[in-house]
Amino acid sequence: MNGFTAYQDTAVTTQSKGRLIVLLYDGAIKFMKLALEELEANNYEAKGRYINRAQDIINELNAILDMDAGGEIATNLRKLYCFMNNRLSEANIKHDPQIIREVITLMEELNRSWKAIAG
If 0-12 CB within 10 Å is exposed, 13-18 middle and 19+ buried, where does residue 66 land? Predict the structure, then answer.
């Protein structure tokens, strides 16, 4: 393992759960913005890859929800994650930048809340 990889592993494993969620949101937002850039460049293959990466992160956020402890908030987040994934699939098929922007807006709003919680 090289030094950079060791640093990355340590940085991730020492973060609080809230901070890790913020990092996941940051990553999904980054990939959706890259998908927009590729869509504007008519590079549909790369657009699709970036949308898929954002969807992978959203699926991970959905998978780690604690439905027992989270109650109504976790239920609402699950519905929102499913909605965002469906919208991104639609954006990918239709090559629709407005749908991607809609999901980015939702993710940024949730991310602001997580950042406030995580400190």
Answer: exposed
